[in-house]
Amino acid sequence: MTITQSDHKIAQLKKLYNEGKLIPFIGAGLSYPFNIPTWEGIIKKLLCLVPDKYQPSIEFDLDMHDYWSAVDNIKKYTNFSEFEIQEKVKDIIENMVKTEVPYEDHNYSDLGEMKFNTFLTTNYDDLLYQYLQGEKYHPIDLSIATVKSTELHNTERKKRIWHLHGSLSNTGSIVLSREGYEQVYSQEKYRNLFSTLLGNNTFLFLGFSFEDQYIKQLIKDYKSHFNNTHYIILTNPSPDRVLELKEECGLEVIPINVKDSTRVKEIRKLLQGLEAKGGTDFFFNTPTVVKQTKQLPLINNLPFKRNINFIGREVELKKIRDYFIEPDIGHKSFIVSGLGGMGKTQIAVEYSYRNIDNYRVVWWIHAENQNSILADIESLLIELKIPIKDEKNDSIVLKQLKRWMEQNNNWLLVFDNANSEEEIDNYLPNLFNGHVLITSRDSNWPGYNYPLTIDKLNREHSMDFLIRKTKVSSNECVHLDELANILNDIPLALDQAGAYIQQTGLTIKEYQDRFIKHRSILTSKGIPLDYEYTIATTWEISLNKVGSLLPVAINFINFCAFFSADNIPKKLFYNCLDSSSNKISFYIKDEFILDEILSLLKRYSIIEINGKRITMHRLVQGVIQDGLSKEEKRVTAEVCWDVISYNLSLYPDYEQLDSDLLNNSLTLVDNFESDLNFIPVILETLNIVGHHQYKKGAVREAHTIFERALKIGLGIYDGEDNRLVKEYISYAQVLSEIGKYNLSHDYLSKALECKDLNTGLKAQINCMLCTNLVALGSLDAANYYLTETLQLLESSNDLEDLKGINILDVVNNIAKQFKLNGDYKSAEKYYYQIIDFCRFAEHHVPQAKTTIASVYSSLCLMYIDLEETEKAIGYSQQAIAINEMFYPNKEHPDLARDYNNLGLAYLYSHKYDLAKKYFKRAYRIYKNIYENEINVDLVSVTNNLGMVSEAQKDLEVAKGYYETALGYLEMFNNPLHPAKAQCLFNLGAILSASGQVDKAIEMLKEVLKIDKYLYDEEHLEVAKDLGKMGELLILQGSIDEALSCLNESINIFEKKIGVNNIFASNALFNASLCNLNMRNIKVANKQFEEAISIRVNIIGLEDHVIQEYILAYELLLKKLGIDQEKFLNRLSNRFKKVY
Question: Are residues 160 and 208 in the same domain?
Fold first, then answer.
C-alpha cells in the first residue's frame, strides 16, 4: 500500500483529535442533505423579485461566484432593505428544509457522536445542535451575543456551537452582504474568539467549497491568528485549487475524490478514522496490517492491455524499480533506450502494470512529436481538472504541468518514443515528487541518471516467448532455437512470426522455410542485412498472407503508414464511408468491410486496436513506405489527403477540431511536404489547423503554422500569385495579434499586389490595413483604407465576390473606425445592422455568434464614451457570456478584450474593485498569450490598471502602471500613437496631484499635440484634453488661459454629445472657478450649479466629488470676499443630502 500526503495529514488530525485540539469549522455543504439551498440557490430564488432587465447583471455575478455583488445588486434593483432580504432568505430556507433525513445520509450524526466540545459554523440553521450527544449549551449567535472573554474558555467541557453569521431564530442577525460581513468581523468579540480558540487548536473545515467568499475573506482578515496549520476537506479539488488555498489562506487540503452520492460516506470514513485505534506505516510500498486489494490508480490512460506473453527483462525491470525507490533523488527520470522493435514500449507497459498500485496517477504520453506530447499532457490536466489552453504548447500548459509535478507525489508519467533529451526537458521541472519513465531510440541522454539500453532477448527467453505465442507441440520445440536465431532474437520479429504461426497453423519448420525464401527476395531488392531486414522479412510474410485473404487490407495498411503511428482514430475512415465521392470508398464499400479489415490486421499483429484508435509500429510504417513504388505512393497519398480533407470539412467551426485529427493532419503534411502534387491541399490543411490554433487562443502555434504555409507557398508560386492570398492574410492576421503591425502591414500590401483579386478580398485586405494603421496610431492613413473598403463594398453587385471573406468582421471594423472618428451615429447604425444580420443568419454563418460578441464589445466602448455605463455593462456582459461559451478555458484574446471593456464600464460606474478584477483578468490572458511580445491591447489594459489604482487613491501604484505602459509604447516607435496620449494624460494627472504642475502641463501639451494630429480639432478626446489643461492652468495661476481652454472644451462637448457627462461637468466646475476669480458671478454660479446637477444625475447625491466642489467654491467665495449666501441657500435646498 502506498502512503499519500493525505494519509500523513489524517494521521496528524488523529493526533490532534485525541489531544482535544481539533475544532470542526462547519460550512453549508454539510447541510445539503437536508435540502438547505446553496448561496447560488438562494440568489436564484431571489431573482424573481428583480425586474427582468436587471437579471442578467445578477446572473453574471452568479457565474463569477460573486455572491456579495449579487446581494448588493438585488438590494439596488428591488429597493428592498437588508432586513427585508434577510426575511426572504429565512423564508426560503425554512420552506425548503427537510426535517427527517436518515442518519446514514448526513454527517451531523457522525460529528454529534464524537468527543468534540467546540464547533464553529457560518450556517444559519441549527441542524448540528439536534444531533449533539451529551451535555450541550444552546447555540450561541456570536453576531448578536454579548460574550465575556471568560466564556470563551469551555471549562465545563460541555458541547458548544458558535454561530458566526447569525441564526434563523434571529432574522436580523443573518449576515448577507459585504457590508454586514465587515461590520460583524470588525467587532472585538470575534477577534477574542479566534485569538483564544486558535492559541493551541487546529481548525478542520468541513462543508466549504473553494468558491466560498466568506470563509476565504475570513481567513485573510484573521490571517495573523491562523498561525498554525489548519485543514480543509474538499471534494475533487484540482492541484491549482490546493495550491491557492495553501498559499493564500494557509490551509492544507485533504482531498476526497468522489461523486456527490458518496461524499457523505467518504467524510464519515475520514471522521471514523480519527477515533480508530492503530497507526500507519509511511514507508513507500510497505505492507500494512490491513490487507489492501490491488486496484487501478484513480487516474490512468494506459493505452495497451497487459501483454500476457511478456517474458524476460526481469533485470531491466528491477533496475527501474530500484532506481525509483532510491531515496533523496529529486528528479526521478529513468531512460530506456534501444533500437526500434527491441521492446522498449513493452517494458514500460509491463512496469506500469506491475507497480500500478503504488501510484495515484499513471499517464501515458505519446512523445514522438510536440503535438502528441501536448495533446496527452492537456488530456491529463483536463482529467485533473486543471485549467489549460487547448492544444497550446506555451507557458500556461507547461507551468500547470510543472506545478502539479512539483506539488504532488505517487504519480508515474511515461514518455514513450521520445526524440531527444532537449525536447523532454521542456516538460519537466528541476525537482518533482513523482516518477518519469522515458523510452527512446536515442541513447544519448547525458543529463539523466541510469540510462538503460535494451538489446535483443537472450535465446532462452526468445524460445520461451515463441512457445507461449505459438502454443506449438513439444516435438516441434527442437526447431525453436534455429527460428529464434534467424529472427535474431528481436522481440518485434518474434511477435510477428508468432502471430503468423498461430493464425495460419504452420509448423515452426514451415515458417523457417518461408522466412528464408522471403529474405532472399528482400536482399535482392537491396535491403541491407542489418536488424531491420529481419523486421522487413517478417512483415513481408504477414502482409502477403493478409493480401491473399483480403487484398483490400493491403491498401488500407498502406494508408495507415502515412498517419500518426500511435494514434490513428478509427473514425477517420468510418466517417468517410458516408461519402460516396470519397476516394477511399473505391476500396472500402461499407463499415462491414472495414470491420473485417481491422479484425484481420489485428489478428496478424500488424496493427493494435485500443478503444477508438489504431496503432502500428513506426518501423513497420517505414518498411511499408519504402516498399511502395512511386505510382503506389502517389495513389496512396491521394486517398490519405481525401480522408483528411473530408474529416476537416466536418468541422467548419475551427474550435471543435479535435487534437487527434490535428496531429494526423500535420503528420500527413510532414510526409508529403516535398511532393509538388499536393501543395494546394497541404496549404489548405495548414490554413485550417492554423485557424484552429488561433481560435483556441494558441496564437504562437498559429503563427508557426501560418509562417510554414507561406514559406511552402512562396517556394512554389510567384509572390503575386493569387493562390497565396489566403496565406498572406492568415499570416498577417496573426502578426497583428502579437503586435507586429508593421510586418503585418507589409504582408497585407503584398496580398493587395496579387493578381486577379475579387472585390470581396480587396475589401477584406483594405479593412485589415485600416485596423492595423489604427493600432499603429496612423489615423489619416487608416481613414484612406476605410474609404477604399466602403467604395469596394458599395461597388460589388455580385455576392460571389464576397464569398470566402468574413464580411461581418469587415463591417464591424468599419463601424469601429466611424467611432474613432467621433461619428457615433454612423457607428451605431453599422453595429445594429450587423446584429440584425447575425441573428438572422446565426444558424447558417459559423462566425455569427462570435461576431455578435465582437459588436457587443464595441458597443460597450461606444456607450462608455457616451457616458451610458449601464448600457455598456450590459453589452459587455453579453459579449462575455457568448465568448465564455465558445472559449471554455477562458484563455483567448476576444475574452481578454471583453474583460478589459467590462472593467472600463465598471471603472466609469465607480465600481473600482470590480473594475480592477476584470482588468487583472484581461492582463493575465494577454501576458500569457503574447508572452514577451508587446501588443496594443496589453498597453491598454496596463493603462487601465493605472486608472483604477488612481481612482482608489493609490497614486504610486497608478504611476507605475502608466510608466510601464509608456515603456511598452516605446517599442512601437511611433511618437504620435493614440495610446501614448492616453498614458501621458493619466500620468499628468498623477504629477499634478503630487504638486508637479508645470511638469504635468508640459505633458498635457504633448497630449494635445498628439490628439489634434490624430483627430479633428473638435473631437471628444481633444475636449477632454482641454478640460484637463484648464484645470492644470488654474493650479498654475494662469486663469485667463485656463478659462479659454475650458470654454473650448465645453463647446466641443455641447456640439458633439451634450454636457451630461463627467468630463463636461469637471470643465464647467473649473470654468466657474475661473469666472469667480474674474468676478463674473452670475456666469460662475450658473456653471457651478450645472456642474453639480450633472454629477447628481450621473452618480447620485452620495458622490463625494460634489462635496469637494462645494467646499472649493465656498472657500473661494470667502477668499474673494464675495457674499453669495442666498445662492448657496437655494443650492442647499435643492441638494439637501449633499449639504
Answer: yes
Q: Is 798 exposed, middle or buried (0-12, 13-18, 19+ CB in 10 A)?
A: exposed
Angle at 645 between CA 643 and CA 647, to 5 degrees: 70
Q: In which band, very low, low, confident or very high, does the pLDDT at 210 lie, cut at 50, 70 and 90?
A: low
Environment class of residue 965 by beta-carbon count within 10 Å: exposed (0-12), middle (13-18) or buried (19+)? buried
What's the structural domain count of the chain?
A: 5
Nearest alpha-carbon partner for 930 in 968, 873, 984, 887: 968
Instruction: Mark which of 524, 549, 574 sits at the end of a domain.
Output: 549
| 115 plus 255 within the same structural domain | yes
Q: Are residues 484 and 351 in the same domain?
A: no
Task: Fill in the DSSP letter of residue 1099.
Answer: T
Kindly state the average pLDDT of the residues 537-545.
Answer: 73
Domain contains 173: yes
Indicate which CATH number applies to the domain containing 212.
Answer: 3.40.50
pLDDT of residue 392: 43
List of E strands, 645-709: none
pLDDT, tens digit (0-9, with 9 covering 90-100), for 967-1016: 887 776 667 677 788 888 888 888 888 888 888 899 889 888 888 876 66
Per-position b or e across 558-574, b if 16+ CB within 10 A of its CB: bbbbbbbbbbbbeebbe
What pLDDT, in 10s, does the model give residues 320-338?
A: 888 887 765 556 888 888 7
Sign of CA dihedral 123, 124, 128, 132: positive
* b/e code 898-909 from CB counts within 10 Å (16+ = b): bbbbbbbbbbbb
pLDDT digits (tens, 9 = 90+) for 127-172: 887 777 766 666 676 665 555 545 555 555 678 888 888 887 677 7
Task: Judge whether 109 lies within some domain.
Answer: yes
In a domain, 328, yes or no: yes
User: Confidence class of residue 1078 from pLDDT cuts 50, 70 and 90?
Assistant: very high
Q: How many residues does the chain have?
A: 1139
Q: How far apart are the first and last CA of the chain?
A: 74
Q: Are 51 and 175 in a shared domain?
A: no
Question: Residue 212's closest CA among 30, 89, 38?
Answer: 38
Contact by Cβ (8 Å): 688, 648: yes
Give yes or no: residues 81 and 108 share one domain.
no
Rounded Cα distance, 984 and 327, in Å: 58
Angstrom distances, CA of residue 468 to CA of 117, 499, 500, 501: 65, 11, 13, 12
Helices 659-672 & 679-695 angle (0-180, nearest 10): 150
Please indicate, yes or no, whether residues 228 and 323 belong to a single structural domain of this protein. Answer: no
Coil, helix or strand for 388? coil
Residue matched to cell numbers 464614451 = 865
Closest to 215 measured CA to CA, from 232, 238, 200: 232
Share in percent of the chain as helix, strand, coil (round to 5): 65, 5, 30
Cα–chain-centroid distance for residue 1061? 37
Q: Which helix (H) or strand (E) holds 160?
A: strand 160-163
**For residue 235, which of 215, 266, 258 has the smallest C-alpha distance?**
258
Lookup: cell for 731: 499570416
**What does the alpha-carbon distance between residue 497 and residue 463 come to, in Å, rounded to a whole number?**
12
Do residues 238 and 342 both lie within one domain? no
Integer Cα distance of 845 and 769 in angstroms: 24
Does residue 1043 contact residue 1071 with C-beta atoms inside 8 Å? yes
Domain carrying residue 1078: 1028-1139
pTM recorded for the entire structure:
0.46
Q: Which residue has the cell 497583428?
A: 736
The residues near 449 (Cβ < 8 Å, ≥ 6 apart) are 323, 329, 333, 334
- Distance of alpha carbon 656 from alpha carbon 12, whole angstroms: 47
What tens digit of pLDDT does each residue of 691-725 get?
A: 877 766 567 778 888 999 999 989 888 888 878 88
CATH number of the structural domain spanning residue 402: 3.40.50.300
* Alpha carbons 642 and 586: distance in angstroms, whole number: 12
